[in-house]
Amino acid sequence: MKAAIDKILSLSEGDGTKELENHLTSLPQDQLTALITNAALKGKDSAALMKAIFRGSPISSTDGASRRLCVYKHCIPLCESGDLQTEVASDIIGLLMLETHVLPGPALAALASLFVDAIKVGEMGNGKSLELFPTILTALAAKEAIAYGKGELSGDEYKKQLINSLCASRWDPQCVIHLTTMFRDVPLSPEELQFLIEKVLRMFLKLDLQEIPPLIYQLLLLAAKGCKKLVLEGIIAYFREQDLHQKKEQREGESMDVEVQTIPQDQLRHVEGTAILHVVFAIRLDHELGKEFLKSLKVSQGQPLCPFSIALLLSVARIQHYQEQVFEFLKGAIIKNFKDEQFLHGSKLLQDLLPPCHSISQMILDTVKNSVFGWDHVTQSLVQLGFILMDSFGPKAGPFGKTIEAPTTAAKTPSQLACQLGGQVLLESFKMHEPIRGEILEQVLNRLVTKTASPVTHFIELLSNIVMSAPMILLESSSKVTETFDQLSFLPLSTVQGLLKAVQPLLKVSMSLKDALILVLRKAMFSSQLDGRKSAVSGFLLLLKNFRVLGSLAPSQCSQALTSSQVQADVHSRYNSAANESFCLEILSSLRRCLGQQADVRLMLYEGFHDVLRRNSQLASSIMHTLLSQLKRYYEPEQDLLPPMKLESCISAQGDQVFLQEPLAHLFSCTVHCLLWHQSLGENARGGMDDEDDEEEDEGGFQDELHAILESVTRRMIKSELEDFELDKSADFSMTTSVGVKNSIYAVLVMGVYEVLMEYNFTIGNYSKNRFEEILELFKRYQKLTEILREKSGKGRTPHSKPPRSLLSMGFVSTLLTALFRDSAQSHEESLSVLRSSGEFMRYSVNVALQKVQQLEETGHTDGPEGQSPDKAFRYLCDITSVLMWRYTNIPSAVEDTGKKEKTQSISLLCLEVLLRVFSTVLQQYPSKVSNFLCSLDLSGEVEEEAEKDSLTEKTAFYIRQFQRSLFSQLSGSEEDFNSKEAQLLVSILSLLAGLLEPSSQQFVQFITWTVKICKETSFEDIPFSRGLLSLLFSLHVLYKSPVSVLWEMCQDIHSALGDIDEDVEVEKQSHFAVVNTKTAASTTLLVLSQVGRVLDEVDWLIAKKKGQSTSEKTASEGATQPAGQQDPVEKAVTLQLGTLLTALNELVQTALPTGACTDTLLRELGRTYSILTTLLKYYIQVCATHPGHLPARLEKLVKLSGSHLTPQCYCFITYVQSEEGNGGANDKKKKKKEEEAVMAASAKIIRQTKAIPSLIYNIEQYEKFLILLSKKSKVNLMQYMKLSTSRDFRINAATLQTAMQEQQESQQTEASQEPEESQAPKKKRRKQ
């Protein structure tokens, strides 16, 4: 064999090829192939041998050509077998490539078929010989004609046939990557490329997971030729399916307690991570790919985002060029998703038509979880996204830097939800990724320090959650927290309080942090800024509350509800309590200095001492002595002197200005609450043991002294007349003079002290009749002073300020109301009758409850002890509500003797007002506790355990029935007995409770049926009540079904009540809803129009959804069309909604509405209606472009309705509005109103006319323009239904002109002759007629 090879080689080295050619011809083909195999396996002379064979096989001879083909056919499987060394195989393939272009067409076709057949049967596993295939295809494409079957094809066509045949056949999964690589070198037309890429994407599912990243890499290289969007969408769709499959398996595994995993989660995540890196690398090199990626995501509204595509987006955001675009897109997608969810949630019509939204927030949180599998390229962008969401959608500063949003526990609006999502992303990222923790913490703290003008509550909440989740990790970055402490005295008080509360658990475990804070707070005590000093007091009080001294009661014994952060801190208590004691006493000595500072600083101290005492009972002696010595400064010890307080010391003057120096009432309040709590603590302790005599004597000293002072003050305050305080009726209370300011301050202090003494005497009185008589005496004086203040402030333009906040504690208000209204104990009856005999006192008690509940609703806490504890406040709310519900339902307001006083509300009405505020507060501040709240009311006397088994809807329905009865009894009487205020309050309460009912429940249906019945049968002419009732009806109806039919009926009622714009037309009397009558029709019109606006919003949203879907469907596939006879349910619903709305509006535009708000709103809504009709036409123009065919019959009807009914009436209505406003102007002249008012009214009228009317006419004309367009596209003449629009540019009304000319002539004649010519007047009138 060696000799044969050597001979061929030696012959090839000669000059001529004839001898070599003859020798090769003499060798049989199988011997020749054996020589090639032998040389190749040995790795020697194989290239030289093949060169020699090619030299001796000229393409011009038949033998030479067939020999060349034989070599090719032998070498291809030989290289693929894997028996050869890589270098040898590469050399052979290289040689074959060089010689390919000389092969004749049939040989090339045979070789190509050989490759195709080998691929089909899966013999191309190695893929080495595939490098030759592109060369063969390129050579083939260059041939002019190749025999194919019985005829001929051009080389290019033949190549296309081959590629089609190849892509249509089955591929062995092993050779997919090799084939994809190979096709990069094949010239392909766009159609062939698309066909190929679709084939490769289909093969994804048949490949092993580990083979996906290299295939994606090759696909992205292939995408350089085109079809970029298809490649990216295919990759994303594959991973979306894998994620869903993996989640489904996980769920099934959890439910069946079996581990079912065809795809291991960690393997899938690592593959996804690698795929993302490949895509991002490709985008860095090819910006067109990046543009295509973002464009496809923006267009594909129908195909939602998924965790993989979000991760890919966030990785792409690391490229500077795309950063802004990606975050803008994600921001927009998130807020749109939340808005869509809210929209769907608020409308039954939309819920029936569309599936629930895909939650992008959940996908983003999934991306955060997935990023744990080494997705470092995603984490940085996640942090950025979190901060962008929190910065963009956090609470905004209102006027004067106040927060607009009241603090609520649950996020409700899309912006709040987006901000909350940002916080969750950052918190989860902080927990999972160590490298970015420092950065997150630094950025949060920076924002707390720098954003002083806007609220930072969301960042404080995030910081608190970070501290709770990982306090020990945070200590590694304690230096950053210390740096922030240095800025404390310059930050707003609310930020300081939030920040210290958030980092408080760290102070327990880090001595250095605690020391740094104390240094900063001590400096702040001497700050020149008042806020700095208040921050210091706030910080010190927090420390006192949380560093408990040995012997202090456990928190559970204090019955103080702690925040979770405090519980966390107690777990980490590292320091012994003895050290804490000296530390706390040191702080107390610092705080005593504050007692010489401004009133605001003292006030903070007084409000904080009680909470400190409850948490740290061992500090009682020190705190009580501090309070006692402070109280003695203002207490008159001489028992015979009146009044018992030195009020002059409580104020200070600076030039002409007088201001409060000592908030005396708060000092009294703090002292009383601390004393009472300490006393109850002592009694509890004495019940257990009687050993510690010394301490008790020591403590008893200040207790007895304080009790004696309070008793003396009570006695002398009752004896004191207002003259003793220089506050009689003749005193000056104006806020413009220094005397008035001083008297006002005195009055507030004295009223506060009266209240504190009432609470003190009630609490220690133990239902003694004498004590209660003293309370009533105190109240009478309090009442007298209140009335004087009310009278004096009422004399000015408006009351100069609200009445001061009551100093009664919420706990006491709850106790007092229970005693007054529900205490039926025999032993208490005599003493309570003293208080119950005073209606004013009862009314005052309920009023204070109202004030407390309002404060809780607005700020989330109340003044006084325990006011900062949400759990305590909730318990008191439950108690107050239970009492007031019982009072309202058991004593009807009709029975109550109001004493016919001119301006006082009945107690029942006040109770109802409190109940309304309570329900609103609970829904806003305690949404998770609503069920507990309703259980606690226990009106029916059921056992609570039974009540708790009921669902929330059942519990709510029970209370709804209570209020329904009350409202029904109001409506059953005559209109004279009807109490409008009470009915309005009842409707407001029912509206709040209705929100708790499940819209699909039977109770909801019963309630809406009842509401409709009331609206149909109630004919009282009370505008506020009818407005409330109809608002309730609409808010229910939209969750039950679309309200358009109800709107239509109401529009007919309004038309019937107000008459027609044409005075000669008599409107048919209709009354579907009795609540709509002549008096209430105008206010009902505004309500109806606001509902019309809402329906238009829904229709607009639906059309936008359909547009988005049709765009994405059009790009995905043009094939699927709607069956001819069947209309899409969304399109059908849109047409029906608009049809009914047009009929309803047709009624309204014929109604003689009062000019002003009603006509302006109607014109605006008409404009919007035409605008949305135009949007609908644009959608159908788009549909006609993609799916030519006839239009739905419903659309034709809609166009007919708008053209023949509504449009002509719109023009009549515009004329009516303008003539009415003209008459209104004439009347103004007759009444000779002030010139300024006339000018203002005229300018307002011009502004209205320049906005609403031209806008409406423009919208009508745009609608007609697009109708013409749609008619052309659809080949249906829609313009046959439209009447020619009135030309409104220049219009002469003959009758009006004649009248005006006659009036002008008449006035000229009157001026010419001094004497009036009586005889001619009738003639003129007759002529005019």
UniProtKB/TrEMBL annotation:
Domain FANCI solenoid: 66-283, 378-541, 807-1033, 1046-1298
GO molecular function per UniProt: DNA polymerase binding
Compositionally biased residues, Low complexity: 1300-1313
Residue span(s) of domain FANCI helical: 288-370, 556-789
Coiled-coil region list: none
FANCI solenoid 1 cap domain boundaries: 5-56
GO-annotated biological processes: DNA repair
InterPro entries associated with the record: FANCI, FANCI_HD1, FANCI_HD2, FANCI_S1, FANCI_S1-cap, FANCI_S2, FANCI_S3, FANCI_S4
Pfam short name (any one): FANCI_HD1
Domain of life from the UniProt record: Eukaryota
Residue intervals passing through the bilayer: none
Record region (Disordered): 1300-1329
PANTHER family: BC025462 PROTEIN, FANCONI ANEMIA GROUP I PROTEIN
Name the UniProt record assigns to this protein: FA complementation group I
Organism, as annotated: Astyanax mexicanus (Blind cave fish)
